[in-house]
Amino acid sequence: MANYITIAPAQFVWEQDIKKSRFILNIARITSEDDARAFIENITKQHYKATHNVFAYLLGDNDQIQRYSDNGEPSGTAGVPMLEVLQKNNLHDVVAVVTRYFGGIKLGAGGLIRAYAGTTAEGVKAAGLVARLTRTKVTLTIDYKQADMLQHWLTTHDYQIIATTYDTAVHLVVPVAEVEVPEFQAILTDFLAGHVVFQIGEKTFFEISTK
C-alpha cells in the first residue's frame, strides 16, 4: 500500500449545535467498502431517530472509490461538502457520517453546506492527522545518563520516538527515511561522542503525526 494521511485515532466523534440543530460527526478508518457500509449502518442504527445521517467516504491508494449520500437533505448540500473536506485534507481510507437532529430552524442551502462541511472539518481537526509513511526502523541504545539529552535532540529535530524500553540501557525506536540513515548515524555518533549503538531494522510503515 502507498503512503497516505489518515485520522490519528481509529474512530472519532465530534459534535456541535447550529441554530438548535445538533450535528454529530462520526469518522473512522476503513480498509474496504464493506467496512464503510458496516460503519454507516451502525451509526444509522445508533441514531435511528435522527433527521438525517449523511455520509461520505474515500477508499483506495488513489481514492479510486468515492461515495456520498445527502440522505434526504437537498441535493449537493451535505454529502458533497463532506467529501470535499476529506479531499482537501488529503485523507485516504476514511468514512465520515454526520448525523443531524433538526432543531426547528431551517438553515437554507448555504447554511447546510457550511454546517456539514464545518462539522466535518472541525471534527477532523480535533481528531488529528497522521501520515502513514515508509521508514527504516532504527533502534538507538544508550546509557541512562544520556537518555534525556538524546530525547531532546530527537524532539527538536522532528524525529518521532515510537517506543522506549529500559533494561541495563535505554533503547529508543525511531523511524528514519532510508536516505537519511547514514547522516542520522553520523550526526548522533558525533553528538554522543560515540556512546550509542545503532540497530538498523527493516523498512515498514509508521504513523507519524503531521503536527
TrEMBL record:
Residues 19-122 form the Impact N-terminal domain. Pfam families: DUF1949, Impact_N. Residues 140-194 form the UPF0029 domain. SUPFAM superfamilies: EF-G C-terminal domain-like (SSF54980), Ribosomal protein S5 domain 2-like (SSF54211). InterPro entries: EFG_III/V (IPR035647), Impact (IPR023582), Impact_N (IPR001498), Impact_N_sf (IPR036956), Impact_YigZ-like (IPR015796), Ribosomal_Su5_D2-typ_SF (IPR020568), UPF0029_Impact_C (IPR015269), UPF0029_Impact_CS (IPR020569). NCBIfam families: IMPACT_YIGZ. Belongs to the IMPACT family. This is YigZ family protein. The lineage of its organism: Bacteria, Bacillati, Bacillota, Bacilli, Lactobacillales.
